[in-house]
Write a structure and sequence with these properties.
The chain is of the alpha+beta class and about 650 residues long. The chain has 14 helices and 36 strands. Strands 3, 4, 5, 6, 8, 9, 11, 12, 16 and 17 form a ten-stranded antiparallel sheet that branches. Strands 1, 2, 7, 10, 13, 14, 15 and 25 form an eight-stranded antiparallel sheet that branches. A hairpin with a 4-residue loop joins strand 5 and strand 6. Helix 3 runs parallel beside helix 4 and helix 6 packs parallel to helix 8.
C-alpha cells in the first residue's frame, strides 16, 4: 500500500483555502487490499477516500465521496482534483542535446489516445514507434503542462480517458473513471511528472445531508517493456473489472445476428428460423432500433421513415409487432438463442407521451428548441420511471443483453441547469444515477449483460467497463459495408485498453471481411434488413456457417495477450498483422491481412511472448497444413508469411510445448 500512502491522492479548495491548510480530523482504516481515509473539515464537509490495491497486477484504484454532515450548506468547494499523483523522472545526462534527438533512456513519453472520432485512429496508442502524424504521442518538455479532456460530456468522445507515461524501462498506465466530462492535467517538473485528474468544472456547495461521489482513477506502475505492460493492463481489466464470467453471465461476449427493429415480427421469426436451418451457431438475436412507438408507415431500414421521432416511447409498436414481440422471443428461445434489445432511455423526443405526462423529468435546451430532451437521471422520480420501464421490459421480453445507446452530447444541458454556486452538480447527479441504474439492473437480473454503445464507443471508461461491454465499439462500422481496414485496425487500437469489444461483419459476406471482424464479440449483419436477401444462396450460407464456426474457435484467444505486429494504418498498400497469445494454454492465433493494393507477397513478423526453449506448431486454418518452428528461431528470425493473392486474410493457430 506504499503507493497509496505516499501520494496526496486528491486536492480541493474549501472557501478558497486548500483542504490541506484547514484543520481536519483524519481517520484511516486499513486492511489487506483497501485503505479508507476519512477527513472531516469545518464540522460539515466529510471526504471519504476509498482506495484499494489489485495485488496481482500491482495496480491501485481510488474514488472520493463528499458529504455534508451539517445542518446548513457547505462553503464553496472548488479546484476539486479527484486524483493527484506523480511519476519520478531522470534528467537527460546531456542537457545540450538537440530537442529533436532525445536520449532514448531519459525521454519522457506520454500517450494520450484518441477517443471515438470515426477514424481508424480511435483509441490508438503507440508504444514503440514515434510517428509525427499520430498526435496521440508526446515528448513531455520540462516546465510545461499538457491538458486533455473529453468532448460534450461523453467520456470517450474525441479523447479517451486512458493514458500511458513512460521513461526508459519504467512507466505508469492510468485511466479515469468518469462517464461524463473529465479533465487530465500533466505537468513535467524538474524531477517528476505530476498528474491531476478531475471532473472538468466543479464549483459548488453541498446541501445539508447531500452526498456525492466523484471520478475514480486506476493506476498501474510497471517496469519492463511497454507492450508487456499493456498486456498486464488488459488482464487487469478482464479479471477485475469486466462483468463477463461473473455471476450467471457468460465468459465470452455475445456472438449475434442483427435485425432491424422496424422489421415486422413475422419476418424476424422467418430470419431466425433461416439462421438455424443453415446451422449458423449464433448465440443472440439482436433487435436494433425502430421496434417502438406508434408509427404506421413502413420503415425498411434505419434510413427510411419517421421511426426516430418516437425515441423515448418504449411501447412495442403494435403495427409491426402485433404480439408485442413476445412471439419473436418465444421463437428465438425455442431455437436456442438469447434476446438482445436496443434502447436509448436518456435521449427522448419532445412529443413522446412521457414528456407530455412528466415534463419535470427532462432537461430542455434553454431556447426550448431542438427535437430531443435529456432524461435527468439525477431526478429520483425520473430515475424510478426509467428503472421500472427497463426492468419491466427486460422481464417481459426475457432480455439477456440490454443495449443502451446515447446519441447526444449532454454537457450543455447539464451546465445550463447549474447555478453559479452549484456548478457540476447536475452532471455528477446524472452520472451517479447512470451507475445506480446499471448496478440495480445487474443486481436484479444476474444473467444480464449490458451493451454500452453511445454513438459507438463514446462512453468507454473504467466505470462503464466494470458494468458493461461495448459490442459496437465505433460508429465507423455504421456503413453497410465499411472498409475492412476499420476493424483490422481497431482490433489493435481498442485492444490495447479493452480486452473485449465488439464488431460488425457488414451486410455482404466474403471471407476477407468476416475474418477482419473477428474480435471478442461479433455481430452478423447479413440478416439486418428486408433489402438484403437472407438464406436464398445455399452455398453462401454454408460458407457463412464455416466462418461462424471458425470465429467461435477464435473468440477465446482475444481474452489474454495481444501483440500488434504492424503499425495501425489506413493505407491500402500494406499488410496488417496481429497476434493473440494465451499464456494460460500455451497457444495463440496469428491474423495476417494482405490489403488490396499491397504489392509484395511475403512479410516477416517478430512474434511476441515467445519462449525460446519451446517448440511451436502452427496450423494454417485454410489448408490444415502444419509446420513446426523452434522458439529460438522465432525469437531471433521471426516468422515469414506468404500470401499470393491481394485482399486476402490468413489465420494461423499455434501451440507450443517444452
Amino acid at each position: 500500500m506504499d503507493f497509496l500512502k505516499n501520494h496526496k491522492k486528491f486536492d480541493l479548495f474549501y472557501e478558497k483555502k486548500s483542504i490541506w491548510d484547514l484543520k481536519t480530523i483524519c481517520e484511516v482504516r486499513e486492511n489487506e487490499n483497501a485503505l479508507v481515509s476519512v477527513y472531516t473539515a469545518e464540522d460539515r464537509l466529510k471526504i471519504t477516500n476509498v482506495a484499494r490495491k489489485y495485488e496481482k497486477f500491482g495496480a491501485y484504484e481510488w474514488v472520493n465521496h463528499l458529504e455534508n454532515i451539517g445542518e446548513c450548506p457547505t462553503e464553496i468547494i472548488s479546484e476539486l482534483w479527484d486524483a493527484v499523483f506523480s511519476f519520478p523522472v531522470e534528467d537527460d545526462p546531456n542537457p545540450k542535446r538537440q530537442a529533436y534527438i532525445p536520449d532514448r533512456e531519459t525521454e519522457v513519453i506520454f500517450h494520450a489516445p484518441f477517443g471515438s472520432n470515426l477514424s481508424v485512429k480511435e483509441f490508438y496508442v503507440n508504444t514503440d514507434h514515434l510517428e509525427k502524424w499520430f498526435p496521440s504521442r508526446y515528448h513531455l518538455e520540462k516546465g510545461k503542462t499538457y491538458e486533455y479532456t473529453a468532448s460534450g460530456g461523453r467520456s470517450s468522445d474525441e479523447r479517451a480517458p486512458f493514458f500511458h507515461l513512460r521513461q526508459g524501462d519504467r512507466g505508469i498506465i492510468f485511466a479515469i473513471g468518469w462517464t461524463g466530462q473529465w479533465r487530465c492535467s500533466v505537468t513535467r517538473g524538474e524531477h517528476e511528472v505530476t498528474i491531476r485528474t478531475k471532473i472538468e468544472d466543479t464549483h459548488f456547495r453541498l446541501l445539508p445531508k447531500e452526498a456525492i461521489r466523484t471520478s475514480s482513477v486506476l493506476i498501474m506502475p510497471y517496469e519492463g517493456e511497454a507492450i508487456d505492460a499493456q498486456n498486464r493492463w488488459r488482464r487487469l481489466i478482464r479479471e477485475e473489472f469486466s462483468p463477463l464470467g461473473k455471476g450467471e453471465r457468460p465468459k465470452n461476449a455475445p456472438f449475434s445476428m442483427q435485425i432491424w427493429g422496424g422489421m415486422p415480427s413475422e419476418i424476424m421469426i422467418k430470419r431466425a428460423k433461416t439462421a438455424k436451418k443453415h446451422n449458423l451457431p449464433v448465440e443472440y438475436f439482436w433487435v436494433d432500433a425502430g421496434w417502438y412507438g406508434m408509427y404506421t408507415e413502413k420503415c425498411i431500414d434505419e434510413f427510411e421513415g419517421k421511426w426516430g421521432s418516437y425515441t423515448g416511447d418504449w411501447r412495442v409498436n403494435p403495427h409491426i409487432h402485433p404480439n408485442g414481440m413476445k412471439d419473436v422471443v418465444r421463437e428465438v428461445e425455442s431455437l436456442g438463442m438469447k434476446f438482445l434489445l436496443w434502447f436509448e432511455p436518456e435521449r427522448v423526443m419532445r412529443d413522446t407521451p412521457i414528456v407530455c405526462e412528466h415534463p419535470e423529468y427532462f432537461l430542455d435546451p434553454v431556447n426550448g428548441r431542438g427535437e430531443h430532451k435529456l432524461l435527468d437521471l439525477g431526478n429520483p422520480d425520473a430515475w424510478q420511471y426509467c428503472y421500472d420501464m427497463l426492468a419491466n421490459l427486460i422481464e417481459d421480453l426475457h432480455i439477456s443483453c440490454y443495449r443502451q445507446d446515447f446519441n447526444m452530447p449532454p454537457l450543455a444541458l447539464w451546465r445550463q441547469k447549474d447555478t453559479e454556486d452549484r456548478r457540476g452538480i447536475t452532471e455528477i447527479k446524472h452520472i451517479m444515477g447512470l451507475y445506480r441504474l446499471w448496478d440495480a439492473l445487474l443486481a436484479r437480473f444476474p444473467h444480464l449483460i449490458i451493451d454500452n454503445c453511445a454513438s459507438g464507443g463514446k462512453r468507454i471508461d473504467i466505470e462503464t467497463l466494470r458494468r458493461s461491454i461495448p459490442l459496437w465499439r465505433s460508429d465507423r462500422m455504421c456503413q453497410a459495408n465499411y472498409p475492412e481496414i476499420v476493424t483490422q485496425t481497431h482490433n489493435v487500437t481498442f485492444g490495447a485498453w479493452i480486452p473485449c469489444s465488439g464488431t460488425s461483419t457488414g451486410r455482404h459476406f466474403d471471407p476477407y471481411r468476416i475474418r477482419s471482424a473477428y474480435a471478442g464479440g461479433m455481430t452478423l449483419n447479413y440478416s439486418y434488413t428486408e433489402y438484403t436477401p437472407f438464406g436464398e444462396n445455399v452455398e453462401e450460407m454454408a460458407d457463412i456457417r464455416k466462418y461462424c464456426e471458425e470465429y467461435l474457435r477464435v473468440r477465446p484467444y482475444f481474452a489474454e495477450d495481444m501483440y500488434p505486429l504492424s503499425i495501425p494504418s489506413d493505407a491500402t498498400d500494406v499488410w496488417s498483422a496481429v497476434q493473440f497469445d494465451r499464456p494460460s494454454e500455451k497457444d495463440g492465433i496469428l491474423q495476417v491481412f494482405r490489403r488490396e493494393h499491397a504489392p509484395y507477397e511475403t512479410a516477416n513478423y517478430m512474434l511476441g511472448g515467445i519462449v525460446k526453449d519451446d517448440m511451436y506448431t502452427f496450423t494454417d486454418a485454410d489448408t490444415g497444413e502444419r509446420f513446426a518452428v523452434c522458439g529460438k528461431d522465432l525469437a531471433e528470425k521471426g516468422m515469414t508469411v506468404r500470401i499470393a493473392e491481394k485482399r486476402c486474410a490468413k489465420l494461423y493457430f499455434y501451440s507450443h510445448k517444452d
